[in-house]
Write a structure and sequence with these properties.
The complex is a heterodimer of chains A (291) and B (361).
Chain A: E1 10-13, H1 18-34, E2 39-43, E3 51-52, E4 55-58, H2 61-67, E5 72-75, H3 79-91, E6 96-99, H4 106-119, E7 122-124, E8 130-133, E9 137-140, E10 149-156, H5 160-171, E11 176-181, H6 192-202, E12 207-212, H7 218-228, E13 233-237, H8 262-271, E14 276-277, H9 283-290
Chain B: E1 2-3, H1 5-14, E2 22-25, H2 31-34, E3 42-46, E4 59-62, H3 67-75, E5 78-79, E6 82-83, E7 87-91, E8 97-106, E9 111-117, H4 124-130, E10 136-139, H5 149-156, H6 162-176, E11 179-190, E12 193-196, E13 199-203, H7 221-228, E14 232-235, E15 240-244, H8 247-259, E16 266-269, H9 276-287, E17 294-301, H10 306-316, E18 321-328, H11 331-340, E19 344-345, H12 349-360
Parallel strand pairs in B: 15-17, 17-18, 18-19
Antiparallel strand pairs in B: 1-13, 2-7, 3-4, 3-7, 5-6, 8-9, 8-11, 9-10, 11-12, 11-13, 14-16
Helix pairs in contact in B: 5-6, 9-10, 10-11
Amino acid sequence: MIYADKNTGVLVQGATGSQGRFHINLMNEYAKAVGGRGVAAGVTPGKGGQDVFGVPVYNSVSDACAKHDIGATVIFVPGSVCGDSIMEAADAGIPTIVTITEHIPVHDVMRAVSYAEKCGSKVIGPNCPGMMIPDECKLGIIPANLCKKGDIGVVSRSGTLTYQVISELTDAVLGQSGIVGIGGDAVIGQTFSNVIDTFHEDGRTKAVVLIGEVGGNLEIEGAKRAQALGLPVAAYIAGISAPKEKRMGHAGAIIEGGEGDAASKIEALRALGVPTATRPSELPELIRRCI
Amino acid sequence: MKFREYEAKQIFREAGIPTPKSVLITRPEEAKTALPAVAGKVVLKAQVDVGGRGKAGGILPADASDIDAVAKELFGKTIKGLPVEKVLVEEAVSITHEYYLGITIDRAKKRPVILFSEEGGVEIETLAKERPEALRRIYVDPSFAELPDFIVRNVVGTAPKEIGAVVRKLYDVFQKKDAILAEINPLVSSPAGILAADGKIIIDDNALSRQGIAENRDLTEREKEAEKHGFSYVELEGEIGVIGNGAGLTMATLDIIAHYNGRAANFLDVGGGADAERVCHAVKLVSSMPGVKVIVVNLLGGITRCDEVAKGIINAAVSQEIIVRIAGTNEAEGAKLLAEHNYKMLKTMDEAIRAAVGVCR
């Protein structure tokens, strides 16, 4: 299992907001199409008793978990209160916490991720498109029509860039075993390494596409992990033309004092023997050569 | 958002961290009477947001005899391109030892890290690279509301015990102000005790509203305009305007422009679910940048609908050529609208970017 599967009951926190509603509908349309359980319940404090497209809404995560078998939650609440929602989900013992929300203060993220880890929960994100196991389940906002079932694991810090890469893979008839967006913030829950471990344990993944950005050094650690596990890996790092000290949309995509710039990451990946694309359109060919 | 030295010192004082006596002035005439209680030497420090301020002539010593002239000189300067509009008049401190103390966030470890060195007053990046053993790194569990004693002991080591109190107070500032960096460099030993001689605080941009900060003043006017519309926007120096959705895809667009030897004028991420009005604002904003010859719109519709994007482009009606690559939800409707208005729409991002680079040749 890659964090979730067909049988995972899903909770949505922030169920009655516009994003929550829109994506509960899309997630359940997908669940229906593939015969999965999909979103079983929603939470919005103060809105208990309502329903969203037939999904019952509760006041608290523990209320929802008492009534439903929940294996994962997808969080859409606003950034200013999102740290609290992550901790509430972890406190209720939900194993997988997918956090779509962006603009969460980083101190809140550190506290929430640390607490979730102590509770044994895995946080995917924040500031991510969520994850998708083609023909099994969709937890988040990745457009389902772009994906195709297969054996390539995709792990990425980006949103739309991930969609770009998936559609290139799908066009090249390279299906995906799982697609996990780990998020673009400076501090995130699951890292490239953690996701690659999960791909490996699950066993269905034959090769990994790693999509990184400027900032930090998690891509290198992830590539090394894949190599140690004997999983072929190809990479693309966005931001080779990004100027220093400028924030490029993601809190994570800022180069700090020359550390973690794209050029040095690409160089480090190539030194490890990881085929690294200069454009996303080169990835299908690179990954095909790996397998 | 960065706080300047005088703001950081104000925050330090409120937190109980001792600093040298200082007063902020905005006109040279104010220098002489700024610190009446200080009899001896003072230093005048330009409050400009640049590194290496001292070496660039932004810090000048003075005493009662020459303070007027020195203040006039400093206010007349530009430091690395920035005019001097504010000056901190500070008592000169006789320093017996300099330390470095900083608190920031370690991304990989997902927690705060306290950095301390007994060799302060230097470029800390240089020290970290050349003599990493001289810089202590102590990690803090983010669930601690205040620092436990063992962490303070590990930070201070054999340095004077009074520094422990400063470490605690600076950690408090770091948490309460939502800082991503809280730094005292140098932290000095003087006959008056331990003092924060210079400081820097950077606040998390995602926490500005709860810190009561209405506007990020680090941004240019056009960047502020972009922020109002919820765009991520950075100005660069080329002639190809760029509009994308999502930070990664937009960055990749810049990279491919560079790959084909083009030069991007900007980075603009319209964010998720942009409608016609937002796209129209984005196109107009990029079009208003001087030197933009062509605009590439590269959007992947998930939540974003391609027909809305097309309407936004058409409504903006700007003078530059626009090359469009949009794919995803309602793609056919978008393509039809664009074709009716004679806009060029290309299938892949590589093609679109090559075409844009071609326009500039």
